[in-house]
Every structure is written in structure tokens, then in C-alpha cells.
Amino acid sequence: MEIEHHPHLVPNIFLFIDRRCFPEWTIQKAKIDFHDLTFVVDGKADYYINGEKFTAEAGDLVYVPEGSVREAHTFKEFPMHSYPFNFFWAEPHNHIHLPFKGVTKKVITKEILGYIREFNHVWMSKQPFYHIQARALFELILHRLLSNYYRKAPMPIDPRIKKLTEYIAEHYSENLSIAELAEWLQLHPVYLGRLFKQSTGTTIKEYVKRIRINNADMMLSSGDFTVKNAAEMCGIDDIYYFSKLFKEMKGYPPSAARKQAGLKHLLE
User: Fold this and answer.
1) 88 - beta bridge partners?
2) Among 151, 181, 210, where does a domain finish?
3) DSSP 92
4) Is 255 found in the same domain as 122?
């Protein structure tokens, strides 16, 4: 399941608790119609998911997708302390499963734990519009988990690479030289390239291309720009190369994005 092909997933969290288990704690065997994403921060527990046994310990992630039969109990000698998120994907996407299987070992970073604690504060305080803030924090957690899963890169991102991606976001339409970027960061170009790929899973050139095409797609989708205008404003002067690159990355030609924008305006 390629979850990145589902850009419209919206999690609706209906249960979150700071679960500090007593020695006899259990979850009775039952089929669930929601998703259970549990972060174990201390102790141990055995989970049975569709009859398969998984042992979760501190630092582990438990994932039980909707439609699964779930059962669990903690270890009496080491009662589990965890933070479970129970949620639905907004319709019609609840059948979409995250790529994690049962228990994923040692995935909780300081950054993720910080988001969880902030989520806990927001969820408990229940200030006006807290659901919006809580959902945003949960999506940051999902982003970190999924990025780590697909990229297999260390977390969190190197501050120099973060500085560079922020610069690219502001200057993507300019002629970006890797040598000049490396000099700006006081790094050797080869080392910068290696560090960037390790942190993002892609090369600087490919990253810049993606930023340019994504921005061009937004411009065309607004209906306010021609294909030629969008290409030039994103730093690509060759319209034929732009069209080819756009279709390779998006799966449809730039003219289709602009045509879709026109149809939306007609319906308004």
C-alpha cells in the first residue's frame, strides 16, 4: 500500500489517553472498525493482531488497522505505559492502512515524544478549536513516522539541510548552483550532496525539480497562469522540457491541470 498516493487522508481522533496500565490490564478480543496507533514508552505488553502475537516494549510502535481482531495484555512485572491514538480516516478512506506491521521496534524519537506530550496537553486542556491543533500535531507525528519508514534516514533532519530546504523553498525559481549552495553552507559540494540525500532521500537536483513542479501545478490549478507563465515563474525556460518533466512527476500534462482549473471556474 503506497500511502503517499492518498493525499486527502484526514485523521479523526476519537480516543487518546496517557495509559498507565495496572498489572491485570487487558484488551478483550474483538474486531475493530478504527485504527489503533499506540506508542509504548515504558514496560511491556503482548498484542495479538489477527491471531499473531507481538511483544511491544519501550520505544516501540503498535499498529492495529481497521478490520483487525485485536487482543492485548500487559506484563505483570513490567506494566505498560503507552499513548494510544484511536482514529478513523475521514470517508471514504477508512480502509487505507498505514504501512506498519504489528509492532515496529524502537521508532519513538525525542521529537516524536515531544509531539505526543504536546498533543496530550492540547487534548486535555480542550481549549477552543483544540481539535484542529490536535489533528495538526497528530499529522506531524504521522509525517515523521512515514518519512522514517520510507526513507530509513536518521531523525531529526540535520539543521544545515533544514536551512537549505527553507532557502530552496524561497528561491526555487532562481538558478541554484550546488557549488554556490555548498559554499554558502561552508560545506564541500560532495559532502553536501551526500548529507542532503541521507536526510531527504533524494538529490538536491531532484528536490529542486519537485519543488518547481509542485509550485507550477498549484499555479496552473488556480487558472491564473498559462503553461508558459508557470514554467518561467518556476525557473524553467524550456517549455518542452517543462512539459515532459511535469508529466513524469505528476502523471498528467500541465495542460490537464490548467484545463481542470477552467472546469472548476465554470462550475462556480
Assistant:
1) 12
2) 151
3) T
4) no
C-alpha cell at position 20:
498507565
Count of other CB atoms within 10 angstroms of residue 160: 15
Interval 225-249 mean pLDDT = 91
Domain count, the chain: 2
Fill in the amino acid letter for 204: I
Predicted TM-score of the model (pTM): 0.61
Residue carrying C-alpha cell 525539480? 209
Grid cell digits, residue 136: 495538526
Mean pLDDT for the chain overall:
89
Q: Do the beta carbons of residue 107 and residue 63 sit within 8 Å?
A: no
Q: Rounded mean pLDDT of 223-238?
A: 89
Same domain, residue pair 16 and 131: yes
Three-state DSSP at 9 gives coil
Instruction: Write the CATH number for 37.
Output: 2.60.120.280
Task: Give the range of the structural domain holding residue 235, as residue numbers without chain letter.
Answer: 159-267
What is the per-residue burial (b if ≥16 Cβ within 10 Å, else e) of 221-242? eeeebebeebbbebbbeeeeeb
15 band by pLDDT with thresholds 50, 70 and 90: very high
What percent of the chain is modeled with pLDDT above 70? Answer: 91
Q: For residue 16, count CB atoms less than 10 angstroms from its CB and return exposed for 0-12, middle for 13-18, buried for 19 or more.
A: buried
Does one domain contain both 89 and 218? no
Q: Which pLDDT score, from 0 to 100, does residue 265 have?
A: 43
